[in-house]
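$ ./design --mode recover --in tokens.txt
reading tokens...
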């Protein structure tokens, strides 16, 4: 009896680590998940325990590969996708973490970063990123300035620092590679996408030594072999979580707006052949395999699922139950919610913006206002993306918030674009697996639901009122 070929997708996210097996036709064969704790201190500090995170990954990889071995599946290759902009410092000799995993949501060094505002345009031109404390460079600077263990390792010549993906690769692979893929390296705000390498100018500006950083490689690369119960498994792809999502549906389509609405919401459009110029959006390399490079324009909504969780905590309600109640009947009058949870992303780019309601209403009404604020923030990013390619033919929606039908209907109506919601709960893992499998054409299509645009004058009026209350961004 021949063994069934499989590829392994390792997805390290803000709430959990997952390992999912797919066969060569894109069908799921097995999966394992382990929760990851998040520490929050005040409004600006968000981090994970680095050792707990590594333990969670080792556990899920071991579990799913042991199951594959017992059921006659052969794990051929693997890939890793992680939270972009999250970073770690570690000792390159012992492998020990010298800092927490500082989350992409973290803004602890925002005040220090303000001194670089006169260089913001030059930084944007060099990196494709707006100067912002969510990215890794200011976090690295904070570690060098405030963590004695990091400073000691720098003096001893054993310090390594960089994207979370680089730390995971170093710890999980026996060869201890010290490398960084383009999707994750780009979110440090130290990486030059035109050169595919660290920028000496930016390293000097942030006071980060090239010798402390990983070597830059391509997205597809021989990273090494995982030691698993199913034997050695070559890990050949590393990328960011959002960078993997569009590939869950096959080759990139320049007529599609890809929206992944989870903790944050990320609105992407593929562009071919060049780095576009869109000053209020982010520009990034989404895939590089040595033979070519694909680019993305991206809008970022920081307060998506995090805003809903903020509201549930503030009101002391069960979020799932509250969303069900809010969906049963819409109140006659709704307040507006100005959503600055975790800072305003594109196209506003304000790291410190007070979240507040305009108008009163019941708990259900205010929850709908928070949900609509996410739709509104996605819409302003769709407007920014629209000129940079052909008209959008549809919007492909993934992520936890997409399970809410009211959210999907509002987005389709306001955007005037058909929305297709994927029923695939793990779009990052599926897109990663497609890349690991070599971009096969015969994968089983993901199932989904269609939401056609329907005129909604009241929603459009609330959107205009909301725009009038938000900061100007042009």
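writing sequence...
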């Amino acid at each position: 009896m021949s063994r069934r070929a499989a590829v392994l997708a390792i997805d390290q996210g803000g709430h959990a680590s997952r390992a999912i097996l797919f066969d060569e036709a894109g069908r799921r064969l097995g999966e394992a998940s382990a929760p990851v704790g998040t520490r929050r201190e005040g409004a600006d500090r968000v981090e994970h325990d680095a050792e707990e995170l590594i333990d969670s990954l080792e556990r899920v990889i071991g579990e799913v590969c042991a199951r594959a071995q017992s059921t006659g599946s052969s794990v051929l290759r693997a890939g890793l996708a992680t939270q972009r902009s999250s970073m770690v410092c570690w000792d390159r000799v012992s492998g020990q973490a010298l800092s927490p995993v500082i989350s992409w949501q973290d803004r602890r060094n925002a005040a220090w970063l303000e001194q670089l505002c006169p260089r913001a345009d030059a930084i944007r031109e060099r990196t494709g990123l707006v100067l912002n404390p969510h990215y890794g460079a200011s976090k690295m600077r904070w570690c060098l300035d405030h963590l004695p263990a990091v400073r000691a390792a720098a003096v001893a010549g054993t310090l390594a620092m960089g994207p979370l993906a680089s730390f995971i690769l170093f710890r999980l692979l026996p060869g201890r590679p010290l490398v960084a893929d383009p999707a994750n390296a780009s979110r440090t705000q130290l990486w030059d996408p035109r050169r595919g390498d660290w920028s000496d100018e930016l390293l000097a500006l942030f006071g980060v030594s090239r010798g402390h950083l990983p070597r830059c490689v391509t997205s597809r690369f021989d990273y090494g072999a995982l030691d698993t119960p199913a034997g050695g498994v070559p890990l050949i792809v590393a990328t960011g979580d959002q960078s993997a999502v569009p590939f869950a549906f096959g080759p990139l389509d320049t007529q599609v707006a890809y929206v992944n609405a989870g903790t944050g919401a990320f609105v992407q459009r593929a562009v071919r052949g060049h780095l576009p110029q869109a000053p209020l959006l982010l520009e990034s390399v989404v895939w590089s395999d040595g033979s070519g490079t694909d680019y993305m324009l991206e809008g970022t909504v920081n307060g998506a699922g995090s805003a809903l969780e903020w509201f549930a905590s503030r009101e002391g309600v069960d979020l799932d139950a509250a969303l069900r109640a809010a969906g049963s009947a819409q109140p006659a009058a709704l307040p507006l919610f100005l959503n600055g949870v975790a800072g305003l992303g594109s196209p506003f780019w304000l790291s410190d913006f007070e979240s507040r309601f305009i108008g009163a209403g019941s708990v259900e009404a205010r929850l709908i206002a928070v949900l609509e604020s996410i739709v509104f923030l996605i819409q302003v990013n769709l407007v920014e993306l629209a000129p940079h390619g052909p008209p959008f033919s549809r919007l492909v929606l993934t992520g936890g918030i997409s399970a809410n039908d009211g959210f999907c209907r509002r987005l389709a109506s306001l955007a005037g674009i058909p929305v297709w919601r994927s029923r695939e709960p793990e779009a990052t893992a599926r897109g990663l697996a497609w890349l690991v499998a070599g971009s096969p054409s015969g994968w089983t299509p993901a199932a989904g639901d269609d939401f056609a645009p329907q005129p909604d004058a009241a929603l459009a009026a609330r959107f205009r009122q909301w725009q009038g209350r938000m900061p100007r961004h042009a």
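exit 0
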